[in-house]
Known about the structure:
CATH class of the largest domain: Mainly Alpha
Order of helices and strands: HHHHHHHHHHHH
Number of domains: 4
Oligomer: single chain
Shape: globular
Number of helices: 12
Amino acid sequence: MSDTQQETRGEAFERLLGIVDKLRAPDGCPWDREQTVESMAPHLIEEAHELLEAVECGVDADVIEEAGDVMMVVAMICRIAEEAGRFDLGDASRAIADKLVRRHPHVFGDEKITEAEEVVGRWEAIKKAERAGKDEDTSALAGVPKALPALQRAQRTCEKAVAAGFAWEDARGALAKLKEEVGELEAELDGVKGEKDLEGEREERVVAELGDVLLASAHLGRYLGVDPEGACRAAVRRFEERFRRMERSMGEGGVSGRPLAELLAAWEEAKAAH
């Protein structure tokens, strides 16, 4: 990156910080002045999901806009904390810069690593050592936020287990495990037609087996290099597009009250039309 590009990038970031400072000033925006670190936190989650959606859609203009929204929320959180004497954006920047240098000894130190898989293993080892130094949870699975979406958390947990050596040789091993879990779910569903047939311990077993299927599916995604959360979102988008196409093909009244055979035929047409 050239010096001019670095300067331009720095100037743009300084402008953002200046705007955030103005919004929080006594003569700034009443809404922004009322916010707290806690009240801004949910906005960070919302904006992060919007950024993720923009990335998946692949429109750079949208990615730029949503990335800016995330940056604004982070800057606002740090500005509010600064006013209370807690921390500021400089503290956060220094902390992440130090962490990145510490966890990339093959870039900023003398270690030699050339393979991505080796980088992941070294990263996890460094993180574990850091937690041990702080008297924190030193499990190989530590550090996965409990608030992550379930499939994403499953993927991250699997990644950590694999990095620790608890791994199938290849994707076929993970696929076999998925088939095994599906078989166990099928066994529990013998004679079950719907939720009215589930109660007590049987319902608990079905819920557990269905959860195991979803977990095994997410783990298979890791072996295939597929993000299960993203794959599920894409599947939902496809389903929604096809369902709406099916609704339109049926005209007034939509799908309500139609025989299942007619709906399935219209569904296949909707799939073929894409």
